[in-house]
Write a structure and sequence with these properties.
Helix content: under 10%
Structural class: mainly beta
Strand content: over 45%
Number of helices: 1
Shape: elongated
Distance between the termini: 58 Å
Number of strands: 9
Largest sheet: 5 strands, antiparallel
């Protein structure tokens, strides 16, 4: 009985050569500063999740006064769907952060822009409402 070797044997041959070229890993998406006003820094960290864009909005209180009744709202064009989960807290202690997850579904691959509205109290006093338009999202979303 003669056997012929093709150069691959064992498990590598059985599973299509696991030692072949690795699958490319997508490049990390750099964080995006959405708001930097009135002692409030909101940074978006983005990743792909199940065909959607996941955005974690991290809101940092850079002041020495506590923020309470914090409300973060976001709107996108009608051709894009957004799901905004509840924030981890409505209170941000001085030099602390809270997080809020958003999920973006953009089947038409329209240019993503987001209108952000933030309201809160600082030291028990209502702070001026912050409104920003965020437009510098990665092109691939």
């Amino acid at each position: 009985v003669s056997t012929q070797s093709t150069g691959s044997s064992g498990i590598n041959a059985e599973y299509g050569g696991l030692d072949s070229d690795p699958v490319p890993v997508p490049a990390a998406i750099p964080p995006l500063i959405a708001v930097n006003k009135q002692g409030l820094l909101v940074t978006f960290t983005m990743s792909q999740e199940g065909g959607r864009l996941k955005i974690v909005a991290e809101s940092r209180n850079t002041t020495s006064t506590s923020i309470s009744e914090y409300v973060f709202q976001a709107a996108v064009p009608k051709s894009i769907q957004i799901t905004l989960n509840a924030a981890s807290s409505g209170i941000i202690a001085p030099n602390s952060t809270i997080q809020q997850d958003m999920f973006i579904n953009n089947p038409s691959k329209s240019t993503l822009k987001m209108r952000v509205k933030i309201s809160y109290n600082s030291g028990g006093v209502p702070a001026p409402e912050i409104q920003e338009t965020v437009v510098n999202f990665p092109v691939s979303f």
